[in-house]
Automatic annotation (TrEMBL):
Coiled-coil regions listed: 265-292
Domain SAM-dependent MTase RsmB/NOP-type: start-end pairs: 137-429
Identification of the protein by name: MFS transporter
Keyword field: Coiled coil, Methyltransferase, RNA-binding, S-adenosyl-L-methionine, Transferase
InterPro entries per the UniProt record, alphabetical: MeTrfase_RsmB-F_NOP2_cat, MeTrfase_RsmB-F_NOP2_dom, NusB-like_sf, NusB_RsmB_TIM44, RCMT, SAM-dependent_MTases_sf
Example of a GO biological process term: regulation of DNA-templated transcription
Lineage of origin: Bacteria, Pseudomonadati, Pseudomonadota, Alphaproteobacteria, Rhodospirillales
Top-level lineage group: Bacteria
Active site, UniProt feature: C361 (nucleophile)
Family designation: Belongs to the class I-like SAM-binding methyltransferase superfamily. RsmB/NOP family.
SUPFAM superfamilies: NusB-like (SSF48013), S-adenosyl-L-methionine-dependent methyltransferases (SSF53335)
Entries under PANTHER family matching the protein: NOL1_NOP2_SUN FAMILY PROTEIN _ ANTITERMINATION NUSB DOMAIN-CONTAINING PROTEIN, NOP2 YEAST -RELATED NOL1/NOP2/FMU SUN DOMAIN-CONTAINING
Length: 431
């Protein structure tokens, strides 16, 4: 094994420990790893793919490891992680068997685990021989999904839709792009597909910043589902809009492009820097303000308010498989309480006759449908303004019976799928 590939696998081992045992979100662990900067871009890409594959396929991988151990009982955590990295390469990343096994054994030697070299060698050789057949017999979607999430989705959406969700999680999401203007022209220049809602779609891979139009600020990365809320305000020309949870600013940019005068608020000054940077690259202008939206007092209410609330992000598992491992039912309850406080405050920040859009990239009903049902029951100043399929380029599948957008991974499969998202559009009654 070359020094760089040993270093890359060592970094992957550390990242797996950070996510699985310290519940650090993968992107944060990745950005913070001290040895990552020294790796070649290709090795960095490999580390990302390798760890993401283990997280995406953890249930399957662990079942294969269990079945391949000579004695029952798992080895200690670091050895288990070395086996996981080896198995992901052997079964899901098409690494030649000798390379995957040898590198795992060398990693063990480099990490003071030489006594385990024999065990690692034996288990991975067996998985190299039998892994593909084992994988073909597994119920992949179910095995890779923690029980609490499986049960929550099955009770909210039924078994067939839950199957669609968990099967979609097995694959990485495509790269979606929102353009400032001329979607047809940019689709051609970027070699992308133009989706019915106006977003562009490309397969993932390659360097985004080297694509035409990036430097000139003609477009930004934004999932198809995430692009929907800002499109649902109706005419925004010269309207005053509060974007209450704005960072990193994808929706802020959309609102500005649509002609609104936007105040972009976020309580994280660090994340707000991303909004400022993104707006600068896109040559767009908004007032950017670090404040807590639950206590912020503007001079007057706005014509429209966007509340893209902090959430568990269980709708974005295709892009962030670590969510399967780091989120807990307690997180959902805590986030739901914060969302409900933000929602109550948002009502006060919108003028009578104005529009409030609430959205989250979660597929937990507690962070979506339940929030809106409770608000409408408690606050008679607000009413629903249902979303229609023609506002989504004719897509009716992600609209529920009361006119909320409820997208689920697994929907729009013929277009390449969509992240899970919830969007409710409300109006504050006059008077
Ligand atoms: C889902 S993200 C927003 C994504 C953003 N709207 C976009 O499209 O790029 C949620 C944001 O809410 C911010 N946030 C959480 N609690 C907040 C609060 N009480 N007031 C303002 N911002 C808050 C977080 O810092 C985070 O940046």
């Amino acid at each position: 094994m070359t020094d760089t590939s040993l270093a890359a696998r060592g970094v992957a081992l550390d990242l797996l420990r950070d996510v699985l045992r310290k519940s650090v979100p993968f992107d944060d662990a990745f950005d913070a790893h001290p040895e990552l900067a020294a790796l070649q871009p290709r090795d960095r890409g490999f580390v990302r793919l390798l760890v993401a594959t283990v997280l995406r396929r953890l249930g399957q991988i662990d079942e294969m490891i269990q079945a391949s151990l000579a004695k029952p009982g798992l080895p200690k955590a670091a050895i288990h992680d070395m086996l996981r990295l080896g198995t992901a390469q052997l079964v899901f990343l098409n690494t030649p068997a000798h390379a995957a096994v040898d590198t795992a054994v060398e990693l063990a030697a480099a990490r003071n685990a030489a006594p385990y070299k024999g065990l690692i060698n034996a288990v991975l050789r067996r998985i190299g021989r039998e892994g593909a057949e084992m994988a073909a017999r597994q119920d992949a979607g179910r095995l890779n999904t923690p029980d609490w999430l499986w049960l929550s989705w099955r009770s909210a959406y039924g078994t067939a839709r839950t199957r669609g969700i968990v099967e979609a999680h097995l694959h990485e999401a495509p790269l979606d792009i929102t353009v400032k203007s001329d979607p047809e022209g940019w689709a051609e220049r970027l070699g992308a597909t133009l989706l019915p809602t106006g977003s562009l779609r490309r397969p993932t891979g390659g360097s985004v910043t080297e694509l035409p139009g990036f430097e000139d600020g003609e477009w930004w990365i934004q999932d198809l589902a995430a692009s929907l809320p800002a499109k649902l305000f109706g005419d925004l020309a010269r309207k005053r809009v509060f974007d209450l949870c704005a960072a990193p600013g994808g929706k802020t940019a959309q609102l500005v492009v649509r002609g609104a005068r936007v105040t972009a608020i976020d309580r994280s000054a660090r994340r707000l820097e991303r909004v400022t940077e993104n707006l600068k690259r896109l040559r767009l202008e908004a007032d950017v303000l670090a404040a807590d939206a639950t206590t912020w007092e503007p001079e007057e209410p706005a014509d429209a308010v966007l509340l893209d609330a902090p959430c568990s992000a269980t709708g974005a598992i295709r892009r962030h498989p670590d969510i399967l491992r780091v989120k807990t039912p307690d997180d959902i309850a805590k986030l739901a309480r914060a969302q409900s406080r933000l929602l109550a405050r948002s009502v006060e920040l919108v003028k009578p006759g104005g529009t409030l859009i609430y959205c989250t990239c979660s597929i937990q009903p507690e962070e979506g449908e339940v929030q809106i049902a409770r608000l409408l029951e408690q606050d008679k100043r607000m009413e629903r303004w249902p979303v229609t399929a023609d506002e989504l380029g004719g897509l009716s599948e992600p609209i529920n019976e009361v006119g909320e957008v409820r997208s689920l991974p697994g929907m729009l499969a013929d277009l390449g799928g969509i992240d899970g998202f919830f969007v409710a559009r409300l109006r504050r009654r006059q008077g």
